[in-house]
Amino acid sequence: xxxxxxxxxxxxxxxxxxxxxxxxxxxxxxxxxxxxxxxxxxxxxxxxxxxxxxxxxxxxxxxxxxxxxxxxxxxxxxxxxxxxxxxxxxxxxxxxxxxxxxxxxxxxxxxxxxxxxxxxxxxxxxxxxxxxxxxxxxxxxxxxxxxxxxxxxxxxxxxxxxxxxxxxxxxxxxxxxxxxxxxxxxxxxxxxxxxxxxxxxxxxxxxxxxxxxxxxxxxxxxxxxxxxxxxxxxxxxxxxxxxxxxxxxxxxxxxxxxxxxxxxxxxxxxxxxxxxxxxxxxxxxxxxxxxxxxxxxxxxxxxxxxxxxxxxxxxxxxxxxxxxxxxxxxxxxxxxxxxxxxxxxxxxxxxxxxxxxxxxxxxxxxxxxxxxxxxxxxxxxxxxxxxxxxxxxxx
Length: 395
Known about the structure:
Elements: E1 14-20, H1 33-46, E2 53-59, E3 72-73, E4 76-80, H2 85-93, E5 99-103, H3 110-115, E6 121-125, H4 131-138, H5 160-170, E7 174-178, H6 187-191, E8 219-223, H7 232-241, E9 246-250, E10 270-274, H8 278-287, E11 290-293, H9 302-309, E12 314-316, H10 323-326, E13 328-330, H11 342-353, H12 356-373, H13 376-389
Parallel strand pairs: 1-2, 1-5, 2-4, 5-6, 6-7, 8-9, 8-11, 9-10, 11-12, 12-13
Antiparallel strand pairs: 3-4
Helix pairs in contact: 7-11, 9-12
């Protein structure tokens, strides 16, 4: 906007097509970091029209809930894959998209890209699985269940290389950006494209106001899907050994049947809240002493950033960008079902619970890092130069 508060009429607005398979809305499908990113971008631009970006959500999957296909969400229009392909194609083309923001990459995104063969693409790399990741995750089993674990089949992300080849032929510009520098090394193996000078496009983490009011007694938060690759059974066994500590579990399972895990309600100090968002999540993270992550794999976990924003240190088996080492304790990967690492998780939690001064130091340092690195301002400082390099400008 101008200093008078009116929008500059000479600014060319960017029509941003956010391509995703998740919306972070419980009524319409999975809850995960991809959908969280969609919401944050929509709210960033939709709440500040002076930025000159008009987002529209392009959903690559149909809703899993019959009748639940909202046409607007987070203040943005939503275009759903329809049963009538000609109608869907007309709806996408009618948006006159200037830039695709691809929330990571899935093979069904290619349909959107094919409809607009010259529209630039920015792939926001969030969760790359390289060969080592695929092998480790693929070998995971749920303790006591002989069925293959659900949710561990790798996506065919290497097909992005075919999108890149076609883009070179059509003159389309395509670029990848990572949420944190440590992910760049996984890009060639994960997506079949070279990782040449990948820029960083940070997450948009809402700042915490004031000092977090921690609970009077030890509270450990577990925030994430209760799906096999998160290995929540480790958390339950650790809680069983620490009856004087409250374990608060925020998340739900996205699978049913064999190869899944069901919450163990026999452990009295574990409180299952299901999906928790916004104010409820902020309250729980603020009162928690520590965040526990037992995942076999993570990119840059959004739960880590949200916990640190509330001055809550980490105890984790994944140490992307050395966040757990810097702002908590890294206990090592502990491959497979991870039960061999229960002692290490328990010891790390007990050590930090006993050391109030160290917890406060780690929490304050973590919050400072998040506020400097993964804020709305940091996102915008990176976003517009990247978009400009793709030939999309507001003026």
